[in-house]
Write a structure and sequence with these properties.
With 98 residues, the chain is an all-alpha fold. Helices cover 60% and strands 0% of the residues. It starts with 17 loop residues before the first helix and ends in a 15-residue tail after the last helix.
Length: 98
């Protein structure tokens, strides 16, 4: 799949061969999203659902905002810790010559 690339698809549909070519390009771009991006997107959907639920049960707006800020902080820390790249193991020091 050499067609996968990390840049966002172009916004001009006419240059990409119509809407079918644009749809394929969008799907390829979505498939190339990083784990961090996918984690953050899922967290935003979860947070939106929790905020809407809190609104429906008439929790005051101030506490909804406080809870959202706390959850955003936890989400960012969790996303960074779960998706960070591990450092490669260091090479062993050379054995001393005897």
């Amino acid at each position: 799949m050499a067609a996968l690339r990390r840049s966002k698809p172009a916004g001009n549909r006419e240059q990409k061969g119509g809407s079918a070519g644009y749809a394929v390009e969008v799907l390829l771009w979505a498939a190339a999203m990083s784990a961090f991006t996918l984690y953050v997107f899922g967290f935003i959907v979860l947070l939106a659902g929790l905020i809407y639920g809190a609104y429906l049960i008439h929790i005051p707006q101030t506490w909804i905002i406080v809870g959202a800020l706390v959850l955003i902080g936890i989400g960012v820390m969790s996303a960074v810790s779960h998706t960070k790249r591990r450092d490669p193991p260091a090479e062993a020091p050379p054995a001393p010559d005897l």
